[in-house]
Design a protein that fits this description.
Low-confidence stretches: 1-25
Number of strands: 26
Number of helices: 1
Mean pLDDT: 88
Distance between the termini: 12 Å
């Protein structure tokens, strides 16, 4: 595993070239309630101010999380991407997202964790960026409550300002692990990286 240092221009290029691609299969449905043990053949949109919980379910499409809303996924498969802006996303245990997970400016909703990824698999890449003033972000930890993940592509973690804990621990990453512009630097340990480890990581 090599450690590289790159300039800001390269970081921006790596971040912006990662796709927000998903699998569009039908008109999007609004998710404003709990879905337990369901199969959903549609893209989903979580409207502003709503909470969408998906457990023991399978979604054939991409989930878009609107500003001020919250998504909780547990023991489920998303055949697409999860895309969020100014929202809370928790991908908790035993999940599989076949494409990418992208969250920009993650925010806690009703005092709940802004972003957490625990003991789950992402087929594509993970981007977490531009967080301001939240208490904590977890992408795997060394604790039982949030174990590490498998990420097929690159993990990009840039420009996050977190007051307490930001952890990237015990993950298996097929691509690169890139961290830059975070304050303070994230706590990083126990990761297996197939590509290069870049910047603060």
């Amino acid at each position: 595993m090599a450690r590289w240092r790159v300039g800001a221009a390269v970081v921006i290029l790596l971040v912006t070239t990662l796709s927000w691609a998903g699998t569009a299969v039908a008109e999007p449905l609004e998710c404003t309630e709990d879905h337990f043990g369901e199969t959903i053949h549609s893209d989903l949109v979580v409207p502003t101010g709503e909470v969408c919980r998906i457990q023991n379910s399978e979604v054939f499409g991409t989930i878009t999380v609107s500003p001020g809303s919250r998504l909780v996924v547990n023991r489920s498969t998303v055949n697409g991407s999860i895309l969020a802006t100014d929202a809370s996303v928790q991908i908790l245990q035993d999940n599989h997202v076949t494409h990418n997970v992208v969250t920009r400016r993650p925010q806690p909703v009703d005092g709940v964790l802004a972003f957490g990824l625990c003991r789950s698999a992402i087929g594509g890449s993970l981007i977490v960026r531009d967080t301001v003033g939240v208490q904590q972000l977890f992408i795997g930890t060394d604790q039982d409550f949030c174990l590490g993940n498998t990420i097929g592509g690159t993990l990009t973690y840039v420009n996050n300002q977190v007051a307490a804990h930001q952890r990237i621990m015990d993950n298996v990453i097929g691509g690169h692990l890139l961290c830059q512009g975070n304050a303070p630097p994230p706590e990083v340990s126990g990761n297996t990286v197939g590509g290069h480890t870049i910047g603060q990581c």
